[in-house]
Amino acid sequence: MRVSLLGTGGIGGTLRDLLAAGRVAGCVTGAAVGSRFPAGAVVAELTGTGDVVVEAAGGAAVRAYGAQVLAAGRDLVVCSAGALADDAVHAALDAAALAGGARWTVPPGAIGGLDLLAAAIRADGAAEVTLTTVKTPGALGVPGAGIVFEGTAREAALRFPKTANVAVTLGLATTGIDRVRVVVTADPAARRTRHEITARTAVGEYRFALVNDTLAASGGRTSAITVWSVVRALEELAARGRTPIPLKKGAPS
């Protein structure tokens, strides 16, 4: 399966290296499109050399190119889940996927336990889910220290568009982005990103504590495990037998 990358920063650049080294089972590199690539040629480049496109370029890239990629019949892996706080973006991806016969997915990224939580929510629609996140002030883009945000996952994504992907991912998998509560704390002494998920449901109470190293190239905004979450998503797509497309003329073999 050929994988094209939209974004060549912390996540995209690391994925490009892993693909080149043969460390993503069943996958090889298609195109790798960075921020300087001509905007009008982005979709053709991605879909002309890839069976699957990984978006790792931020919410603006999801809005600009996500639906076009799906409409062209290519599967899409969305890393910038915060963009889905906009219901219109979510609806556009769904409609384009239906029209193009493609699929799109959001990998768990920096958190886990979503399968268990999703099952518990099925048993109890009134469940309460809370996410507490601790990052450095620099990663959050705020001065000082202490609690800098309390609100819903949707509000968190709007307040921290580059660092709140986890909040939206959790909301989509559980009670919804308008019901998941989020607390964000800035800690100048934090060397790792910390996420704590708590859930109270009719079938049990759950707590997950995750302490993640960060990608150096991300300025502390992105957990290193996110890359491997995408790798796992790609390997699952490859194992399901996504049909390869012909290489466009002149593409590397």
UniProtKB/TrEMBL annotation:
NAD(+) binds at residues 110, 165. Transmembrane segments: none annotated. Residues 146-231 form the Aspartate dehydrogenase domain. Residues 49-107 form the Aspartate/homoserine dehydrogenase NAD-binding domain. The active site is at residue 195. It catalyses: L-aspartate + NADP(+) + H2O = oxaloacetate + NH4(+) + NADPH + H(+); L-aspartate + NAD(+) + H2O = oxaloacetate + NH4(+) + NADH + H(+). It is an enzyme of class 1 (oxidoreductase). SUPFAM superfamilies: Glyceraldehyde-3-phosphate dehydrogenase-like, C-terminal domain, NAD(P)-binding Rossmann-fold domains. GO terms for biological process: NAD+ biosynthetic process. Specifically catalyzes the NAD or NADP-dependent dehydrogenation of L-aspartate to iminoaspartate. This is L-aspartate dehydrogenase.
